[in-house]
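does this look right to u?? protoporphyrin IX containing FE version
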Amino acid sequence: MVVDPVSGEVLGGKLQQVYVYEAPVRIWHWAMMLAMLVLAPTGYLIGSPWNGGTGEATFSYFFGTIRLVHFLAAAVFVVSFVVRVYWVFAGNHHARSIFLPPVWSGRWWSGLFRQMGYYLFLRKESPAWIGHNPLAQIAMFAMYVVGAFIIILTGLSLFSEQFGWGSVWMNLFGWVNVLLGGSQMVRLVHHLTMYYLLIFAVIHMYMVIREDVMSGESVVGTMINGLRTFKAGAHKG
Ligand code: HEM
Ligand code: HEM
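got this back:
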């Protein structure tokens, strides 16, 4: 099989199974998804609190529990993101794909427009890709990588506030508060970024399931066992 080494486009030859997503990428993906399933509802409740019943708040500790669960899931989200960023440097070519899209490659740009043509029903066939197609790369960089970075920084800045100015936490993350002009703006940006990430997640889930059914290659299975396989009779064969 002939593959363009920079863009990952399959140029021709017999299609073969390829190992794309290494274990750390797959573990990060599913751990991060589970963390987000917890972070979004608990975060929503922090922003729009519910009093949680009729009893004395001290005894139910309802809101405290919601915050604790949010912080535990946030720890999973942050640690898995840090491991994922380490894997950008330690992992294979595909581990870099959404963090450093190869915008210097002419074939990558041509692939971007051909892929857009396919989604706009202007082309019947999508080019075949070993990793993400260029459009997916750009979308994942702009929506996931940037969004996760912002939600982590604003989250850590909000978390630091409880320790007060002059604490180690505030020395590390207080600058986000100063940069955004105060706690309320940090909270607003954190909250809005949740919607940004959730919009990405919904579109992403639609796309991966649709591509799994419609395209010539494995998609959902690739994020489970790491292997990109090609369906019998797939293009470029
Ligand atoms: C996908 C990831 C995350 C989502 C969807 C999310 C969502 C939210 C939302 C919607 C709020 C309420 C904001 C408001 O007051 O309107 C919130 C609050 C908060 N989040 Fe997150 N968050 C995420 C990750 C994080 C991370 C990584 C941290 C880091 C420690 C964090 C720490 C906090 C803190 C400290 C608060 C304020 C709690 C309070 O004031 O009681 N969050 N989050
Ligand atoms: C909170 C929800 C989710 C988020 C934020 C998310 C995020 C991501 C990101 C950022 C990537 C790129 C990985 C990389 O190249 O480093 C990815 C890939 C992938 N995700 Fe998700 N994901 C979510 C849920 C799901 C679900 C529910 C499924 C399965 C139905 C899924 C299936 C996949 C697959 C198959 C890939 C690889 C696509 C390919 O082979 O080109 N994701 N996801």
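The mean pLDDT is 91. idk if thats expected tbh
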